Amino acid sequence: MAYNQRVPGDSIQSINASTRLCAVLGQPVRHSASPAMQNAALKALELDWRYLAFEVPSQDLRAAIAGAKAMRFVGLNLTVPHKISAVEMVDVVHEKARLLNAVNTIVFETPGPKGDWIPLGQAADGLITEIRSHGYNTDAEGLARSLKEDFQWPDLRGASVLLLGAGGAARAAALQLAEEGVASLFLVNRTESKAEELVSIAKARFPAANIIHGWPEEPVDLIINATLLGLKPDDPQPVVDDWLKSWQPPRVYDMVYRPAETALLRAAKKAGSQTANGLGMLLYQGAAALELWSGLPAPVEIMRAALRKHIYG
To answer: How many domains does the chain have?
Structure first.
């Protein structure tokens, strides 16, 4: 039988010898909402799998990935601080993960009946032989889907965007936005050298894109906060109120999703902007990971409800 063979819902309430595992690795990881989201999805799909969370220090990441591979885990998600270092720890790196220099999803694979590599979650039980780890990045795809849904904005081509930040999340956003065909992308970061480096990386990959280091001199269609400002109640806003009131951007997106409404989003609402937080990005990167592991359509609305309940109560 295949690892993803469905079983009646009442048969997967307890863990048994047939239960397969997937997990998120991070440090810290106790705050992660992924187990709530993914286990709700696994129950809906009637898969006898469980999704767990493990606190893994950076120095133990390679061993943790090797251990999951040896124990035939279906797959892994990686969160802070492991995404970049994992690029050099998996057997195969998907093109998008290589471009972003970050792996947030690992699919464990085995040779299929036709000689191609297939996910363990889709392999016939008892026919798993050699196993390899395949690193993917679903963060960028998650952001694009979230922007299009949250703002009822099916096509980002031709948009002007101000992106705040230059870390891993900003890199994923910048490269995805350039790939989506935005007309202008302005990059701003507290450490200017990091913003300049990201501009260079994005231009090298998308030489025709109009990518600029610095603040725009005219209104933009979208502001994205990819910094950590907003996680704490006393954090300063990444964009001051007067700037928002003056430019009145039609859309403001904050990757922070806890709290549900950051100071930036409150100020943007007062300025008349449509706003959204990063819950959709979290949702869709997780849905994409589940689809890679299982080969089944993710139950997105069930996952969304589980996230909201877990995070916001």
So the answer is: 2
